């Protein structure tokens, strides 16, 4: 999250500390500050100037030639901006200035008149709203030559924080200020919210219905009319730009401003576009679509939560508004929404539609269900301040089941035992009070009430211990070496097996990846598994780190696909990697762990001195798994039919080893590839390492004493005759002398008939006791060909 130091100072006094000191304090308490930068960078050569004279340009009627005092001298500026008059104070960028929009100022000749500087508008400051024309920034009476940054609210520092997923309360300036206030032992200054209410009651103007209270436990709204939609104040634009949000209009900007300030998303509807003046919170209908504010047409699914009016959808709940009800410059009446949406629902919808917004980032982590009224009132207050108008009396508050706060008990003796040091009880009480837990000391314990903005994060006594420890300071807790016996390695450890597989696959040129065993349940849902499939019913974690890590994986595939997606996002298109890890299943007597391996390849293979490179394909992955099986078991894989829903139906196979099912191999289904936004075909294989290891009896086989002879065999076979069937038949027809069969070519297309393919095999004949003559080989090979055509509906190409 991005915000400015002056903004933070409005909630907790911190101007006496350097930005670096504040960043260090927050980082050591668990709120990482990734960067600190000066907001006015490049504005050192931008100063105030007073226009002394204005003349017309002798060649260009639209331009004016201005003589401007900049304190220690005068400059001549040619500009086409309107409203340039003698005596007005402007901002002047002197030569060498680097402006926020990327312009570097220098002296130039404009049709015979020298322009020695630039006048600064919001365009140069990269603050312009949509459709803005270049208008110079005019200031009140200020002496010429003053530094510009303090006057345009840019003499400030920008802080970039990276809250962990379990701390949505720190996705607002208020939440960060709360942390800092406790760390500095200073009071938290919450904004004073007050505004007049007049006219009819809101409940007379709009009806709100919640059809799915599980997905939307609370929905609040206020009505404002008579405001004038227009540009926002410069100070608001500067803060929004610093937060990475572009200015749009004063009404919309206020909702975004409060989002950053208080951490709660809001949305404003044009009241006149709401049909029936009604809000319905419901799931989307089958086949329903919505054009969102970004102009994209969204195809909605029936489980996606929608904000609708009496007839149609008007917003994707918690994610983005609809274009059919957006606030425009002509809008005169608005309805402001402040609601709470169930995090999992928002996260699933955002992921399926490929949308990530500032609102969805907050809702999918868990918003403050009790803080949304404050956010709504703050938004109303600011809209009245910057846009005028009047607010109707009261607000709509649809709240079927009010929040019941959770109460916990922290033992002070237990706190000391957990941390291995003595924390003064008054310090523990002060810390928890500052964080909003309202502690009450009672018989060596602290009874606390978990604030709603920490309801998803603090659920047990140990969570309270963590809160005290991180604020008290881990550096104040003495370091001790852990004591206890070292556990012996378990008998029958699988570590040697894992290391062997890692060595083989790494030697084949694949890169190893390591993913968490905890995964997002939606990643399993995306595979399209049948509900009776054990892989579709994962083990659920009681205390997950986040919703995205709430179940144990039943397959390695989601982790590999996610890794490939991350690589593609950073323009790494060519990849081949593997993973070795455990998968987890529910069993009759508890849980079961199994050891799996998996391979993924997509893009192009790297070029070498003898190969210009080619695309990864099914046969590359098959070859990797075959080589692994050959080295570990000395056995050849066979393939069977496969109907895995996440694989391409015509490019997938079941892996069999000595008749036992080993795993699967194939191309990722196009539906799944689109979901992960892959730019090329993706091939995967997953297999059981326990089956692959099996009972491996080491058998010595001497090198052959006599040479072998090869013969090629080409045939045309229908698709119904599998490679495995051809292989098995040939082995039956020439036992003893036929030592190896390799498929060396596969072709489909003209002149081969449709529904058939051409296969070419290389057959190796060899005897153990003599060198075979050509006559012997021809006799055996001829008999094999003849019998093969009798047994199978193939045509041998001679």
From TrEMBL:
Catalysed reactions, semicolon-separated: tRNA(Phe) + L-phenylalanine + ATP = L-phenylalanyl-tRNA(Phe) + AMP + diphosphate + H(+)
Binding-site positions, Mg(2+): 457, 463, 466-467
Keywords: Aminoacyl-tRNA synthetase, ATP-binding, Cytoplasm, Ligase, Magnesium, Metal-binding, Nucleotide-binding, Protein biosynthesis, RNA-binding, tRNA-binding
GO terms under biological process: phenylalanyl-tRNA aminoacylation
Co-factor remark: Binds 2 magnesium ions per tetramer.
InterPro entries, per the entry: aa-tRNA-synth_II/BPL/LPL, B3/B4_tRNA-bd, DNA-bd_dom_put_sf, Fdx_antiC-bd, Fdx_antiC-bd_sf, NA-bd_OB-fold, Phe-tRNA-ligase_IIc_bsu, Phe-tRNA-ligase_IIc_bsu_bact
GO CC, one annotated term: phenylalanine-tRNA ligase complex
Requisite cofactors: Mg(2+)
EC numbers, comma separated: 6.1.1.20
GO molecular function, one term: tRNA binding
PROSITE patterns for the chain: B5 (PS51483), FDX_ACB (PS51447), TRBD (PS50886)
Residues spanning the membrane: none
Domain B5: 403-479
Broad class of the protein's primary localization: cytoplasm
Tagged with keyword Plastid: no
Localization (cell): Cytoplasm
Domain annotation TRNA-binding: ranges: 40-149
NCBIfam families linked: pheT_bact
Family of the protein in this entry: Belongs to the phenylalanyl-tRNA synthetase beta subunit family. Type 1 subfamily.
Quaternary state and interactors: Tetramer of two alpha and two beta subunits.
Name under which the protein is recorded: Phenylalanine--tRNA ligase beta subunit
Organism field: Thermosulfidibacter takaii
Lineage per the UniProt record: Bacteria, Pseudomonadati, Thermosulfidibacterota, Thermosulfidibacteria, Thermosulfidibacterales
